[in-house]
């Protein structure tokens, strides 16, 4: 310092320009020594020493070059000087020195370039001046110090993406891979960092792996040096982005050492190991292997770290691991839930998001569904529904949707206050949020207890608005929710009050069959209410519903027929259904492969045929034969409805003949079986009663063995069935040809028993049967012997 203070710098710099080599050498040597002082480094450059020093580095005298470059080496330690050396055109001469054979000069040049390469602006310029090739060659130097300086310079240069391509061209990758095998841990570190930087480029990833980097990198995962571990894991992290590289890394047995590094005392090492495992876990089978090799416990432990980066890295790995079915339960069993739930309250939104995604994955497992709710997950998840970040809201909603699949959780989720934020999400402008909120409500509204609560919380108006969403999936899910809600009697009324009918009817014309199905199911449920029936008719719903009958989708046909069945229960709908062309498709659906469709269609026709005007129309649509066929259906409910419809039709004299012509009598008589349900017997017997009114069809009944079957029903416990049977026998007994057959078929005892019935109508019909039979003289004795006189005499005393 004193030398400089005494003004020596100026003369010394002047001597650098001497024509005497020795003077130049000595002056450069003195300045070299002075430049070891930080203050002097600045002053020497200010004295404009760089140009003559660069000139001396081109000297023919090695001793002069060494002193000059040694001085520049010391000057390059200063950050300001780094820029000035490059600006003063020092790079060309430095690159030339790199190529010299003198080891000392190579060393000085490599140190200077190491220093210069720290500056961001210098990185590209150094490469442009051709420094890469000699630096790469120096990686093979027998001087480890020179090797290291060249390696650090290349490490620094590799940070700049512009240099990547040129560095690869100049053979940096194989040279660095060779350094991975060095026993010098510093060289290992620099090589790992350089490869880590280069591997950011996908094209370089392939080259690095193809050059054989995986094996030595994996071997370095066992290094005792923390910097080596950090950067080796970091290099593998970048290389593991490509799918084909993942396979090679796993095949090189990297998983075990990486899991060990998760337990390192260095957070930076843990971070890189966790991120590498995160990438590898995307490879099929590796997610299971990581868990089997003990990866869960250290990852879960990392969730308790105070370092946000570590928490997020662990979450990212767990996010991938929790996708696999086998791992979902294991994460919970290894104690992952408390930590994950606590992170939902993190002040870091990124951590919140990753934690809820892991929980979203875990919630897909049935065992976890219950466990998560038991451990208090619902309040924390519900809180995230109010997050300012839409992505977090969406993940939280999906998690609740998954949890709500469990019957045990449906009520609990509502009790924890989930409805207000879910309903608020229905008003979001983002379709994905709407969809997830509706998905949760879809599951919650399955539970009867929740149906009324959801409506009371104000869900109906936004749900009805979403029926007009441009997104078909939203329409579909809203349709399901409204379908569920419409099961509740009071909800049926409220849904119509908020205007649900018109948009639901519009969706019946949707090009999406699934949307049509759910909308129609909702309409079907609403149509149970009588006031709603009239509203649906007023809104033109009948035509829309009938149009669905011709669509070849059984579920849709079922709901459409079900809606018409409900509507046709009121008089106002019957003529409308026929007018809008409902008869042909309804008749056709009597032959559907779906029993439910057949039943709904049959009941609708039964309702319609209660109107006289519709009976003949049904016959014209060839509806009799399929109804007759249904009399032999395997389900009694369908048999009953078919018989009930024929019962209505047989009121008309002209239609009775069609029923007989279509062979309806034999199957009707088969249904007069006391072992069948009374409702079925009643409808079949009522139809036979109506047919028997026409004398021309009496013999059809008798020839088909009907007398014995009708007689057997006189003993029925049902007064209605007894009456139908008695009236039928009365009608048959008018024909003289039938009387003997009736007696032979054993009608007298039960008919006589009916004379004592408590029902006056049955007594009257039985008395008429006896009267008709007694008109045949040959039967008088048999009638008396059967014991007819006492009950007849008793009837004389009747008031």
Descriptive keywords:
mainly alpha; 0% strand; 799 residues; rod-shaped
Describe this structure in words.
The chain is mainly α and 799 residues long. Helices cover 73% and strands 0% of the residues. The protein has 59 helices and no strands. Helix 11 (132-138) packs antiparallel against helix 12, helix 18 (226-239) runs parallel beside helix 21 and helix 30 runs parallel beside helix 33 (431-444). The longest helix is centred in the last third of the chain and has 15 residues, at 678-692. The model has no long low-confidence stretch (mean pLDDT 95).
| Straight-line N-to-C gap | 147 Å
Give the helix proportion (percent range): over 70%
Low-confidence region ranges: none
Structural class of the secondary elements? mainly alpha
Shape: rod-shaped
Radius of gyration: 48 Å
**DSSP helix count?**
59
Mean pLDDT: 95
Q: Hey, roughly how much beta strand do the residues contain?
A: under 5%
């Amino acid at each position: 310092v004193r030398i400089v203070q005494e003004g020596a710098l100026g003369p010394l710099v002047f001597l650098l320009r001497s024509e005497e080599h020795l003077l130049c050498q000595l002056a450069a040597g003195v300045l070299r020594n002075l430049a070891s002082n930080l203050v002097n480094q600045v002053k020497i450059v200010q004295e404009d020493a760089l140009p003559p020093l660069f000139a001396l580095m081109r000297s023919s005298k090695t001793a002069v070059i060494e002193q000059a470059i040694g001085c520049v080496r010391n000057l390059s330690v200063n950050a300001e000087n780094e820029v000035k050396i490059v600006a003063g055109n020092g790079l060309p001469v430095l690159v030339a020195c790199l190529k010299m054979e003198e080891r000392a000069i190579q060393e000085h040049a490599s140190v200077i370039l190491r220093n210069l390469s720290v500056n961001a602006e210098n990185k590209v310029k150094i490469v442009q001046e051709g420094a890469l090739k000699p630096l790469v060659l120096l990686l093979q130097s027998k001087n480890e110090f020179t090797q290291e300086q060249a390696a650090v310079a290349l490490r620094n240069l590799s940070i700049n993406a512009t240099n990547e391509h040129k560095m690869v061209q100049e053979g940096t990758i194989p040279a660095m891979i060779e350094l991975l095998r060095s026993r010098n841990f510093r060289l290992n570190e620099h090589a790992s960092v350089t490869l880590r930087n280069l591997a950011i480029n996908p094209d370089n990833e392939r080259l690095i792996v193809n050059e054989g980097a995986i094996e030595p990198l994996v071997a370095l995962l066992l290094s005792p040096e923390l910097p080596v571990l950090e950067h080796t894991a970091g290099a593998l992290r970048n290389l593991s982005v490509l799918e084909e590289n993942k396979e090679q890394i796993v095949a090189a047995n990297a998983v075990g050492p990486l899991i060990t590094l998760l337990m390192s005392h260095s957070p930076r090492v843990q971070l890189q190991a966790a991120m590498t495992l995160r990438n590898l876990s995307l490879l099929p089978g590796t997610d299971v292997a990581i868990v089997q090799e003990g990866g869960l416990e250290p990852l879960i432990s990392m969730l308790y770290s105070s370092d946000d980066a570590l928490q997020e890295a662990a979450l990212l790995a767990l996010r991938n691991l929790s996708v696999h079915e086998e791992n979902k339960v294991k994460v919970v069993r290894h104690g992952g839930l408390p930590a994950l739930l606590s992170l939902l309250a993190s002040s870091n939104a990124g951590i919140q998001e990753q934690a809820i995604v892991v929980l979203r994955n875990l919630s897909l497992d049935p065992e976890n569904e219950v466990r998560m709710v038991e451990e208090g997950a619902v309040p924390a998840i519900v809180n995230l529904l109010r997050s300012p970040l839409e992505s977090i809201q969406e993940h939280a909603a999906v998690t609740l949707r998954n949890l709500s699949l469990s019957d045990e959780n449906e009520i609990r989720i509502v009790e924890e206050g989930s409805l207000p934020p879910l309903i608020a999400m229905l008003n979001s402008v983002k379709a994905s949020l709407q969809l997830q909120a509706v998905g949760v409500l879809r599951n919650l509204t399955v539970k009867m207890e929740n149906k009324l609560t959801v409506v009371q919380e104000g869900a109906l108006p936004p749900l009805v608005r979403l029926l007009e969403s441009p997104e078909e999936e939203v329409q579909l899910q809203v349709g399901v929710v409204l379908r569920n809600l419409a099961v509740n009697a009071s909800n049926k009324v409220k849904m119509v009050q908020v205007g649900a009918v018109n948009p639901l009817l519009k969706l019946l014309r949707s090009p999406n069959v699934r949307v049509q199905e759910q909308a129609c199911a909702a309409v079907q449920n609403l149509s149970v209410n009588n006031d709603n029936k009239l509203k649906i008719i007023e809104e033109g719903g009948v035509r829309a519903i009938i149009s669905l009958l011709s669509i070849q989708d059984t579920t849709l046909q079922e709901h459409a027929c079900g809606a018409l069945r409900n509507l046709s229960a009121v008089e106002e709908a019957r003529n409308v259904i026929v007018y809008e062309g409902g008869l042909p498709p309804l008749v056709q659906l009597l032959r559907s492969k779906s029993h439910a469709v057949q039943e709904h269609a049959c009941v609708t026709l039964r309702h319609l045929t209660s109107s006289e005007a519709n009976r003949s129309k049904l016959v014209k649509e060839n509806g009799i034969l399929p109804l007759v066929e249904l009399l032999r259906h395997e389900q009694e409910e369908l048999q009953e409805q078919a018989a009930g419809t024929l019962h209505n039709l047989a009121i008309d004299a002209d239609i009775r003949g069609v029923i007989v012509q279509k062979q309806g009598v034999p199957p009707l008589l088969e249904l007069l079986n006391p072992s069948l349900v009374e409702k079925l017997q009643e409808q079949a017997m009522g139809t036979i009663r109506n047919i028997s009114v026409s004398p021309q069809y009496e013999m059809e009944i008798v020839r088909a063995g009907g007398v014995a079957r009708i007689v057997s029903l006189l003993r029925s416990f049902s007064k209605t069935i007894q009456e139908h049977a008695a009236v039928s026998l009365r009608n048959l007994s008018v024909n003289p040809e039938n009387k003997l057959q009736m007696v032979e078929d054993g009608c007298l005892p039960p008919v006589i028993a009916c004379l004592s019935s408590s029902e006056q109508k049955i007594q009257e019909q039985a008395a008429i049967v006896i009267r008709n039979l007694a008109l045949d003289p040959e039967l008088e004795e048999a009638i008396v012997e059967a014991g007819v006189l006492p009950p007849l005499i008793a009837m004389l005393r009747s008031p």
